[in-house]
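Appendix B. Raw example, untouched.
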Amino acid sequence: MDSLITAAARALAAGDPLGALNRVALREDAPALALRGIAMAQLGDLVRAKALVRSAARAFGPKEAVARARCVVAEAEIALVSRELGWPAKALDAARATLEAHGDQVNAAYARYLEIRRLLLIGHLDEAERTLATLDPAPLPPASRAAHELVVAGIAMRRLQTKTARAALARAGQAAHHAAIPALTAEVASAALALNTPAARLITRGEERSLQLDEVEALLASKSLVVDACRYAVREGRTVVSLARRPVLFALARALGEAWPADVARDTLIACAFRARHADESHRARLRVEIGRLRSMLGTLADVSATGRGFTLVPRGARDVVVLARPVEEKHAAVLAFLSDGESWASSALALALGASQRTVQRALDSLASAGKVQWVGHGRARRWMTPPVPGFATTLLLPAPLLVD
């Protein structure tokens, strides 16, 4: 490897893409193409970066398997940043195996971290945690150790383990400081900000206030009966009754939870659960049936008692009833929650992360674009959707799959 390539690689490792480009911008050999691609990715031109890295992979000879594998890892990282979550995981796995076989443990570990970050984005926490457990960050350089701790913190935040997340972010900050890469330091600071911004709203006795993530963790561990509108469940301590597949029952539970300790009129419950403008006897009969089902589902957590004008929620052992809601609630809040990270998303990636069809997501994006809440760049398969981050809200931390229809 010649001196210019070596100097450009060192500049990239130090987070200086312009310094790298100054050395290889006019070269078309395979190593220079790869370094130019990584530099363009660091500068934010992801389309050009992807094209350069692919060109480099084709330009490397058949005996340069390690170099081609590194290009595959770089392309996977560009795809992850571009929120192209459907990229072939088998190609990345094959590249990782090649790197391990040739002793490049640092880049092999980085390939693993890319895989884990993708799993984290699409909500596969158990699989991400299992994969992370196979990695030992101790022998890795500071930048890779920072990446490891960021993944640990990401999983912990979604598990509502704030102490673990804060400790991981502190270690990530130390590793980023030793790496002396400004972009990495900024990424750690951005992740830490999520712990200090509202992640949900608490609604109780007709009042509401914002909660940070550690407050949400404390609430779920308390003796309160929580109607969780973030995960569509009713819970008390470790006992959880999921209503994610029973939207009518969850609507009734939320309405009763928000009104507690008061009751809710039958007509109000009918309008809330069935979206009926005018209640008739058929609606009232159906309401009685659904209330019976809700009683059965809640079991030992709470009863639903009839009153003169409606129904009221009666906790069996909890001291009070509260509703935990998302910080922002509107028709397409789930789509906005993912776009609020400031990255540009493909509609296919949003569909994968939300567990919805791509056509459903596209209709939501078109509606949000008409309202001026999102914008797009590119055309056809290259189109990406984005919105500026919502100030002060960590909206994706408690985001579940969409509430399914009965």
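End of appendix B.
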